Amino acid sequence: MTDPVRCIEFFCGIGGLHYALNIAKIRANVVEAFDVNEIANKVYLHNFKKNPSKKTIDRLTEKDIEKLDAGCWLVSPPCQPYTRGGKMQDIEDPRAKALVHLIDLLPKLSTPPKYIFVENVKNFEISQSREKLVRQLDIMDYEINECLLTPEQLGVPNHRMRYYLTARRRSNPVTKEVSDYTEKSIIHTSWPFSGSNEMQNDVPELGLFFETLPRGEEKYQVPAKYILKLHGFRLDIVRSTDRITSCVTKAYGSHHIMTSGSLVQTKQMDITEYDWNDPPSLVALGLRFLTPTEISRLHAFPVPGYQLRVPNAPYSKKEPRPFSPPTCMPHLDFPDSVTLNQRYKLLGNSLNCWVVAELLRCVLFEEDVIMS
Ligand SMILES: C[S@@+](CC[C@H](N)C(=O)[O-])C[C@H]1O[C@@H](n2cnc3c(N)ncnc32)[C@H](O)[C@@H]1O
Question: Which residues does the Swiss-Prot or TrEMBL record annotate as the active site (predicted)?
Answer without folding.
Answer: 79
